[in-house]
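Please complete every field before forwarding. Incomplete forms are returned to the sender.

SECTION A: IDENTIFIERS
Entry label: holo-164
Bound molecule: flavin mononucleotide
Molecule representation: SMILES string

SECTION B: INPUTS
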Amino acid sequence: MPISGDVYKQIGRSAAGAVSIVAAYDRTSDRIVGLTASSFVTLSFDPPLVMFAIQHSTGSYVSMVSSKSFGVSLLRDTQADVATLFATTGPEKTGKTQFEPGTTLHVPLIPGALAHVECLTNQIFISGDHAIVVGLVEEARTFDGLPLLYFARQYGTFCPLEGS
Ligand SMILES: Cc1cc2nc3c(=O)[nH]c(=O)nc-3n(C[C@H](O)[C@H](O)[C@H](O)COP(=O)(O)O)c2cc1C
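SECTION C: PREDICTED COMPLEX
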């Protein structure tokens, strides 16, 4: 028998994750859609694939799964305000945000992020109440700094253990 919703939420709170903004241009209106996501991970080295999961009920869902490309901005420790803003729903957040264009693809990126990843949408799998979106990485850049992490409903950053 599957676990209860409460236990499931506890699992989510126990799993620390890097925080990203996943954003794309809506194919019809060319308006930017984007959301805070902790589900972004690298997937395959050859070919270079990454993935994230998006809940069906989000406002960005239709635009995101129909887009031919998307940009991922891995946030740094100073960008918790951006994560909080993009965890709200609705189009106002993109109007309040200055994006920078991808260097290779037509994707919106958050300036000052720890990494920028420009992807062509490669595959979409519907799984439960989420879609898993797989992207082929066409361009990526990383910068020095510390990551923004999410754990136990709080933002924080990485601190290496002594001697590790
Ligand atoms: C730290 C954090 C991580 C999140 N990760 C995801 C995620 O991976 N996938 C997802 O669908 N929603 C995720 N969310 C929730 C979305 O950011 C939230 O539902 C947002 O309001 C969606 O925006 P939209 O409705 O404008 O699309 C996360 C929220 C937080 C605070």
